[in-house]
Amino acid sequence: MTRVAVLGASGYTGGEVLRLLLAHPAVEVVQATSGQFAGKRLDYPHPSLRGMSALRFVPHEALEPCDVLMSCLPQGGLIERWARVRELASRVIDLSADFRLDPTDHERWYKKHPRPTDVPEFTYALPEWTASQLPGARYVAVPGCMAHASLLGILPLVCAGLVKPELVVDAKTGSSGGGATPALSSHHPERASALRCYRPVGHRHTGELENIVERLTGTRPSVHFSATAVPSVRGILSTVHCFAARPIVDENEPLRAIATAYREKPFVRLIRPNTSASPFPEPGPLQGTNYCDLAVDVDPDRNRIVVNVAIDNLVKGAAGTAVHALNLMLGRPETEGLGFRGLHPI
Amino acid sequence: MTRVAVLGASGYTGGEVLRLLLAHPAVEVVQATSGQFAGKRLDYPHPSLRGMSALRFVPHEALEPCDVLMSCLPQGGLIERWARVRELASRVIDLSADFRLDPTDHERWYKKHPRPTDVPEFTYALPEWTASQLPGARYVAVPGCMAHASLLGILPLVCAGLVKPELVVDAKTGSSGGGATPALSSHHPERASALRCYRPVGHRHTGELENIVERLTGTRPSVHFSATAVPSVRGILSTVHCFAARPIVDENEPLRAIATAYREKPFVRLIRPNTSASPFPEPGPLQGTNYCDLAVDVDPDRNRIVVNVAIDNLVKGAAGTAVHALNLMLGRPETEGLGFRGLHPI
Amino acid sequence: MTRVAVLGASGYTGGEVLRLLLAHPAVEVVQATSGQFAGKRLDYPHPSLRGMSALRFVPHEALEPCDVLMSCLPQGGLIERWARVRELASRVIDLSADFRLDPTDHERWYKKHPRPTDVPEFTYALPEWTASQLPGARYVAVPGCMAHASLLGILPLVCAGLVKPELVVDAKTGSSGGGATPALSSHHPERASALRCYRPVGHRHTGELENIVERLTGTRPSVHFSATAVPSVRGILSTVHCFAARPIVDENEPLRAIATAYREKPFVRLIRPNTSASPFPEPGPLQGTNYCDLAVDVDPDRNRIVVNVAIDNLVKGAAGTAVHALNLMLGRPETEGLGFRGLHPI
Amino acid sequence: MTRVAVLGASGYTGGEVLRLLLAHPAVEVVQATSGQFAGKRLDYPHPSLRGMSALRFVPHEALEPCDVLMSCLPQGGLIERWARVRELASRVIDLSADFRLDPTDHERWYKKHPRPTDVPEFTYALPEWTASQLPGARYVAVPGCMAHASLLGILPLVCAGLVKPELVVDAKTGSSGGGATPALSSHHPERASALRCYRPVGHRHTGELENIVERLTGTRPSVHFSATAVPSVRGILSTVHCFAARPIVDENEPLRAIATAYREKPFVRLIRPNTSASPFPEPGPLQGTNYCDLAVDVDPDRNRIVVNVAIDNLVKGAAGTAVHALNLMLGRPETEGLGFRGLHPI
User: Fold this and answer.
1) Cis peptide upstream of residue B345 (ω within 30 degrees of 0)
2) Predicted ipTM?
């Protein structure tokens, strides 16, 4: 059994990490930290853990050595504790943006990185694209949720040379991506009917998308990213509007490129025409799962290729990918502990 | 492996039965029938089954012999086919009301039962109360969803003699209980904001509650039942208003009675004060699970005891109980295939 | 024009009071106070006021004399300022519970009333029942929202002597009743799927219902009140379960009693059978209106009479009744400024 | 009083037309037709009309001469009846796509127009842009709801020459746009959590946008349009991604262009920075109103200009614009009967 501790475990990604790890056959959760809930049982803030564990939260400072540490601290929390944390665990998986971007991009979108020389030690965990780097990785950075969904749509087409490096990404997201801390904009009467493009320009995932596409393909694209809040709790739908690099002759070429990219990938499901009563990628039935559903459509008259990508922001977009990376790091079966396939209707 | 066929498998309870059985380690799903979707793959109407099975629906008439048959046909469908179905499987689990009530009550709330002598062959599957009858049962009737939730709140107090046999049950339900067939009242623009007491009196579960409480306790109560549609898809909250049989001296007596009744019952969780940031039974985090959360409150000044009971209508209220009963019938571990503990937030 | 000031105008009831008064043909809004938003325009927190007024919030302390003062301060706020406020306006309408209950009940459900001798100066504004007292009233207390809805169902039957003085009231409410201040329980991810009986016993509206029914009918009933949060923002559905005082012979008697009680009342609409494709009182299509829809059902076998009452908690349950009372106090047409009839679908 | 008849008045746009006209001071509703509800009162399918009218639906065939006819028939319904309808009323306002597009575009996106020579008789009612043509218009075509919202964002920038004629329009819509007829995709359990890009390419409003922008500006753009269903009933948010025609030097230029375009337009509200606690255009608080809220954002590094436009699809996107056009045709005040300013929270 791999002994895993979870740092910052009382928020929403922390709750999902605990839910997955407590049911994982190869893992023992040895500690979970929380400032706010230290001393309380794990199920105190997380009703979905009722009856799963007798463990109680400890303060962040009480963290002891373990095999793997997963950090669900908010932005900046791991950087701040990095000197100490790296002494406690030989392997660390971070779910924040602390070590995702190259220092130059980090400075542009967040702030000057206080530990730029540590950044290259981290592997960016996009398992469908960087799986080969994970077995040996010591430190892993889990992608941002909207960046993750969008990359899964962008990369097959960019890699196949089918599209121009100028993309419009219109991402729609539920409220849980904003975390567990109350605020006026997430107060239920204000948020329940929200359909608001809360970040039309300047969203940080713009930087993550441009940085990672460049890192993985060699070409830095212009990503025109907007984020819209929709009236749901879990789930992201990222609509990636691409423009064909050359006139579209074969309308099935994009579909084939995507099918090829994800042929052996257990968590990505390409929805083909006429195979479903509801043939659109939707985050609803993906809630709780590590699956990504996607579909591609082509407008040959206007040379546009549209990829729609749906995930659960808290699982495939966070905790599930952390566990997926852990499986790869430990040499376990890729899907271990990630078998849940979602609910319908919901 | 027990070979199970599912009759009427394209609706919502059928989808949940398939979801649970396809992941069940001791079961092989051998056939699934559907009038509407015959020839289509199981995941055509059920996106949560994507990638789980290559099976296709067959027409009801194509049903072949199997070990256990689960029927998710609508009301009246199994009665109509009973002569043939009982030849195909030695064990049958029915999720409709066809064989739930004693013939007298059936006639009063549905219509004259065409096969009254077959009714006594069926065991009513309320596992927390009738588990001992299930191992040997050939034919099993799964309770109605709102009746099931309400019974779990009523029975401990009635059995302990704490309350009068006159109860007000105010049940709240999501839209999935109405099934998968579109209608004006379930058209999204009409139903999305619905908060409507659609059956203030005369709901059939009144009869089920009175019949089953009498069968299990010997006392026939008056149940004052109302059903209210709320703006959600899955889940039932049943608020059971009881009146103490004698003045309340010890406010903890109802809590103890309920705790005793469910002490060894893995799927019923009594929420005790101060153990949760959200100490109320709610169906939200129970979606997809076979769990029942309940809590009890006492107003000693007015002699009222209130039990709130939350379940997922499609799982604990239907498919999960069917699988729970199957486990007991087959001598398998009670919780096999029913381990999912739900999501939060959702 | 009557010059009206609104005290505590940045919350949800304050916003509705402003919305109604700014469009009222006989009223001029002269001041609106807010601690948090002093200096901001009225539409800063209230998007529905965009373009309606150039007024800005002033601090509570900046309040000047006016003809009528409406107070939307939270519980206790008006009591605290009463000595000063009564000097500023000859007529005051309070939307809190500060002066609703008799001092004995106030002490029991809130705390010892610091100004018990001022309480009798207030008229309880339940226009369908106390309209005759309003023209001469100087000080007016607007009912609590769930109490208001429930009283509209209870009073006709109690007054007609049709029901026992022991009632079960199961009220369902949206999130806006909790006010505009964020909290964990109203954080969107926590509240969006909530179906929780958050106050099964001990809700303060129990005391208001018992107090007011006694005041208006002479009989103090036992009210068994529970409040359940449902996944919506606006609206209350109160299900009043009554028991017939004597065996029900004429099933239409309750309907006639209610129809008689509200015959000349413009804001109460009794839904009769077969007059609507959706014949249930629902708060959805009442959003923004001062209307109350109700229906009555009878179970003669169990001697139960059920009244379902729907209102918008912020209008009929608060701001609309305040304006309704103002109209009666000023001798204006009863429905002035309250003509909006709601939206469907919504 | 202008005598208006409403053809096809039992659907959602019909209900909104009736709601607005029944409260309009210069209009008398003389007839309302319905196939399904002939003989029933207007409030039978439309609860928001309770108490507003004693009129009953008549069959389409019973239509008599009137001053103005408003047609809410589904696509193709008015074309089919045009020969007869034009004899009954000298002025006709159509809310379908029957006479919106030039015949060439109509054929491409719908089917060959059976009455191409009648099309030029119709004025396209986009009041902020075509108001001058409406006073004399006999026949008027109301824009499609998503096209309408998008045009309000596109036109100021195209007319000012600020953007390239290649636009990505990502429109999000509630379920009421699909009409009142039940279907599987709008069945509440299927639609409640829907976040689905149901028409990534090939949506008919693509054609309407290209046709109308060309008609009004002389330049035919390429419009890359996608439509996404979100979990709400009313409302559209159209996100218009534009690319600056030349490098952006002055970031305020787009804002000024839009402000200038709508300076005297009572129903379009440009949300400027720092004027609201919720500074994003959102359809929620616009429900029931004829207002359009919009905002503009600029990414100078990537040369993108984003306009977000929110409307209520059934009002500004249909019935409200019909009434707005009627006011202009009749020489009435532009805002008459359209004063409702929406609700918050909702």
Assistant:
1) yes
2) 0.97
